Amino acid sequence: MLHSQFLESIERLISNQIKLSNSLMEVTTAEYAAVLSLDSSHLLAASQSRVALFEQLQIAEEARRALIEKEIGETKEPLQRWLLRVPLGPGVTAADRARIVLLVRTLRNRMVEVRTLSAQLQSLSGFSLEVVNGCLSLFHAAKQIRNQVYSARGIISEKSIPRYSRAELTIRQA
Fold first, then answer.
1. How far apart are CA 120 and CA 138, in angstroms?
2. Tens of pLDDT along 73-118?
3. CA distances for 152 relative to 19, 109, 146, 148, angstroms
4. Which tens digit of pLDDT belongs to each residue from 110-149?
5. Torsion of CA 169, 137, 131, 32, to 10 degrees
6. Which of 55, 62, 50, 58 is nearest to 23 (CA)?
7. CA triplet 55, 5, 15: central angle to 5 degrees?
8. What CA–CA distance (Å, rounded) separates 35 from 30?
């Protein structure tokens, strides 16, 4: 049976999670923009803010789960389905239940948006890191004087890197 005290507590916790997820979305968007604009100072600040918000969101999620487990017990049933199934208690109206169900849906939708944007940020950051690592490996290889190379017959030969001068590679006469 739905009790008004449980509904007030769950509404407060879910509203806090929605507020935190909105802030996380804003910070993740700012971090994404900082990566695209190559702004390292804003990137560092946004990244630190995102980590702090994520930790706060995890704490809020644990508190919400603990409250639900205390009220419902250990069940695999989603909160929204449970709220719609359980009869109303004294002092609880259908509008109260509908308000909480709407908050649950809003939280779920916002978390999907945050996950999607975070995945895009992670993909962009991963690609950027691969580009930087590729450039660094090129610079490292360019400063090497000799390189041992296996030929097709398995014979080791030393090659100079770069093998040709810049003028020979870029401009060729026809």
1. 27
2. 777 778 888 888 888 888 888 898 899 999 999 999 999 999 999 9
3. 63, 57, 19, 13
4. 999 999 999 998 898 888 778 878 887 777 666 655 667 7
5. -140
6. 50
7. 35
8. 9
